[in-house]
Amino acid sequence: MTEASIAIAASGREWALGLHRFVADHGGARVRVRVMHPEQAVDESYDVLVIDDITSFLSARLVQQVQQKDRKVLGIFEEPAGEQRLRKLGVNAVMRADAEPEAFVATIVNLAAQRNVDEEFAELIADLHEGEPEADAPTTARFVAVAGAGGGVGATEVAIALAADLKRRGTRVCLVDADDVAPAIAQRLDLPLHPNIRTAMDHLHHGSGSVSHALHRQYSGFTVLPGLPNVRDWGEIRSGDAIDVITELSVVNDVVLVNISSLVEQTQGDARGEGRFGVARLVLGAADAVVLVAGPTPMAVGRVIEWLADTQRLISAKPLHVVVNRFDDGLFARGEIEQEIEDVIRPTSLTFTPSDPNLAKAAWEGTLAPWSGFSRAIESVTDHLTPARAPRTRRLRMGR
């Protein structure tokens, strides 16, 4: 009989080392991979993910992604609050951290032997409908990350305009400020700084209220979850909690737009396995699609390529929509930038948005800018986020 293969999320608790040693000495299962990042948990091949309740990147979305690949998740806890969190996240089974290694292996083997009931049902349905034409799968992105390839390119303004345009189309949309370097959405829209994303995290994990209680409604109708007014506060919370909040918001919204920092490079993690800019990287890893805002110069194209090199493992298979913002340089310059981006990056869509002097006035007033060429260009981006056709796959040609 084939041994169950295990992925163990990096942990400082004794159970992890004890389990690793036990299966090495006695068999019954084998450790396939040590998981350091959420993308490993999704991309690697194994039967059961064993993970602590305090793991920085543990979220409801990660659990769902793992289970969708017919893998099981075993959550480990020390305190009752940890067990409660694991069950709320939807893991397949839970165990106390002080359980004997034999009990761990028995539970893992049992989980590995279970088939995904939903998958069995899907196979039966497929047999019944064999030969029928396939229906088009919905392609609307429900969780969209909006980032800038460098600071000051207008990513926040693009995110706000996208939220407004989605709302005009009758979409239930929430705009989340998860920029842990320069949060600005609440200030830009003249909204209160409290409650904010920290409040939403407390509501979610302590049961002190609903996540929706932390939202503010912009006058045009979309809701906003402000970021932390003091960026140093991000160091006191787990980045994975932001994903949990976004997952909750996606239940009651058609689209959740998340504005993140332009700083995304991988850095050395702290004791919890998180590094600086961990929020942005986790959001990118969990998003259904990415909107990347760039400046209107050839140098800005270079920044786009650098940004993609830092995030390629996170977004390599996701739809990527590039917005060249504040572009006013004519058809020749546009053709040059367009050719460079299409040749090297091959995004799912490429949109040029013009400068709009009304945006500066709107920022002072905390309002949305009036209808303009900028608004029309943003409509094109929205069309690509909610298409009737499947998007093209993007591939970054790093060898150029």
What do these coordinates show?
By secondary structure, the chain is an alpha/beta fold. The chain has 2 domains: 4-121, 3-Layer(aba) Sandwich (Rossmann fold), CATH 3.40.50; 143-385, 3-Layer(aba) Sandwich (Rossmann fold). The chain has 15 helices and 13 strands. Strands 8-9-7-10-6-11-12-13 form an 8-stranded mixed sheet, with helices on both faces. Strands 2-1-3-4-5 form a 5-stranded parallel sheet, with helices on both faces. Helix 1 crosses helix 5. It is globular. The relative contact order is 0.12.
Number of strands: 13
Task: Give the topology string: H per helix, E per strand.
Answer: EHEHEHEHEHHEHEHHEEHEHEHEHEHH
CATH architecture of the largest domain: 3-Layer(aba) Sandwich
If strands are numbered along the chain, what order do they take across the biggest sheet? 8-9-7-10-6-11-12-13
**Rg, nearest Å:** 22 Å
Helix content: 40-55%
Tell the overall outline.
globular
| Main sheet specs | 8 strands, mixed
Distance between the termini: 48 Å
User: And the CATH topology of the largest domain?
Assistant: Rossmann fold
The total number of structural domains is 2
> Would you state the CATH class of the largest domain?
Alpha Beta
Number of continuous helical runs: 15
Q: Give the class from helix and strand content and strand pairing.
A: alpha/beta
